[in-house]
């Protein structure tokens, strides 16, 4: 008995979705559009960080207060802006560096990239909240947790691409140091979150742990070199 000729060679829709998720979709234009979209969203999100300060400056100008009054009263907002700007910039650099080694993409790369972009879009909200509710545990968890998830997604992206012949550029493979770097940042964000929540009075100062990222990466790099 012959099957329906219209169905010959066709896969069920769920099989096609799985193939799209796991198999590469090798179009240079598609990869460029994914990168351009990501960069554009990051640029918008990092710009939104300054808007609460712009609004606050307008309020101060209406009350005829001086610039010194503005910075004295709004220093928590200014600090939150600087921290979030530095974090987003650091995460974007890691994302940019990773995609220098990407030759193609698949559904998993798209999903992880969109999830990462979501964390960047969300970050201006806890940034603004951290200035208004600076000691509330929920705000601290929201703020540091968003950073943690963002860094974790970058780590997963790196692990997804590295060693995958369909995704990784054969002429420019991912340096193990890059994977170690994102992994170290993720771990430090996690430790900072735990310290900020459990240790009274520390709050956002726990982010100072991130300065250890460079020294830790160098130590791990030397150990890896000795092993190889």
From TrEMBL:
Superkingdom as given in the UniProt entry: Bacteria
Signal peptide range in chain numbering: none
Localization per record: Membrane
GO cellular component: membrane
Record keywords: Ion channel, Ion transport, Membrane, Potassium, Potassium channel, Potassium transport, Transmembrane, Transmembrane helix, Transport
An example Gene Ontology molecular-function term: potassium channel activity
Membrane topology type: Multi-pass membrane protein
Keyword Ion transport applies: yes
Transmembrane stretches, start-end: 34-54, 74-93, 105-128, 140-159, 179-198
Catalytic reaction(s) noted: K(+)(in) = K(+)(out)
Family membership: Belongs to the TMEM175 family.
Designated name of the protein: DUF1211 domain-containing protein
Species, as recorded: Mycetocola zhadangensis
């Amino acid at each position: 008995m012959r099957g329906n000729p219209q169905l010959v060679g066709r896969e069920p829709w769920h099989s096609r979705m799985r193939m799209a998720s796991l198999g590469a979709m090798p179009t240079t234009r598609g990869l460029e559009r994914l990168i351009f979209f990501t960069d554009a969203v990051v640029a918008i999100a990092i710009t939104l960080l300054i808007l609460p300060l712009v609004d606050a400056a307008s309020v101060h100008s209406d009350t005829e207060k001086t610039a010194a009054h503005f910075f004295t009263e709004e220093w928590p907002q200014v600090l939150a802006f600087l921290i979030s700007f530095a974090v987003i910039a650091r995460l974007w650099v890691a994302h940019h560096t990773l995609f220098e080694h990407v030759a193609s993409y698949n559904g998993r790369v798209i999903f992880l990239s969109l999830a990462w972009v979501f964390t960047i879009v969300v970050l201006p909200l806890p940034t603004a909240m951290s200035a208004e509710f600076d000691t509330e545990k929920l705000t601290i968890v929201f703020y540091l947790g968003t950073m943690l998830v963002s860094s974790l997604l970058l780590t997963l992206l790196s692990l997804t691409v590295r060693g995958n012949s369909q995704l990784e550029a054969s002429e420019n493979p991912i340096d193990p140091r890059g994977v170690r770097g994102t992994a170290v940042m993720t771990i430090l964000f996690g430790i900072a979150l735990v310290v900020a929540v459990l240790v009274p009075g520390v709050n956002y100062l726990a982010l100072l742990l991130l300065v250890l990222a460079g020294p830790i990466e160098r130590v791990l790099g030397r150990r890896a070199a000795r092993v190889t």
